[in-house]
Amino acid sequence: MVREEDKPAPYKYKLVKHNVIKFAYMHLAALYGLYLCFTSAKWATIIWSLFLLEAAKIGITAGAHRLWCHKAYKAKLPLQIILLIFNSIAFMNTATYWVRDHRLHHKYSDTDADPHNSKRGFFFSQIGWLFVRKHPEVLEKGKTIYMEDIYKDPLLRFQKKYAFFVIGLWAYVIPTVVPMYFWGESFSNSWHIATMLRHVLTINLIFLVNSIGHKWGNRPFDKNIKAVENLSVSLLTTGECFHNYHHVFPYDYKASELGNTKFNAATLFINFFAWIGWAYDLKVIPDNVIIARSQRTGDGRNLWGWGDKDQTEEEIKNVELIYCKSN
């Protein structure tokens, strides 16, 4: 049974027909690409496609999400360039547009101002929101989102200004040409596997955080919001679906609690570049603050068994108050 508060206000969406046609083709091409993986593709093509898929996910999770959207850490220019290339491989619009939509999602989560409002159903929040015109609330509230830091970033300005060439090169041309040139793969296999199948998987895996990440899982940090923790989705998205935690503490560079790195490839990626000095000023939330918040507003079902020792209500308030004052 759907709770009354989870029912969205009635609204008739207008289809964006060219997007429907484009995504229909992409998904059919991806299915054909999957068939080709088992019938005619060379192993090198499949390995190349998997590499591109992981790079694309990192370009969204460690790049557009944690670095540019939330400023959860800082990166030196070489790492920024790597992340911009990986983000372009992902092609989930430019990083600039991705950041705007995601900041909007955090500020107005699960409302009509949320671009992929989960209250409108699983399909809508997964991919259906790309098939329709944006809700008027998304357009109106989008004007209030702070974006000056993004507009001033020279690399992001470059990607946005030359998106056709930059994204076209990294998302379509290079993935297709490399298998053909280096190991004699056919154009059909290269296009349908390394480009279409890889692209469709990137989109749908990342958007599981929008759909499943707001529906099925536990809420150990705030039981009053829809965002959940889902380990399976986290494994598929380089560590992005410790989502209840992330909505409570969006500026933690790990996007997950208590130093968790075992199921968080994006965190391991950032940690490696921090080790060589290309990533720095990594933001973390103190463990006692995390536990205090969990005990105050969580549902009591954490994934790792931490924080079982209860603190008094006064102790919880004091921990959070000290943390807020110091930040």
TrEMBL record:
GO terms for molecular function: iron ion binding; stearoyl-CoA 9-desaturase activity. It comes from the Eukaryota. Its main location: membrane. GO terms for biological process: unsaturated fatty acid biosynthetic process. The chain crosses the membrane at residues 20-38, 45-65, 77-99, 162-184, 190-209. It is found in: Membrane. This is Desaturase 13. It comes from Streltzoviella insularis.
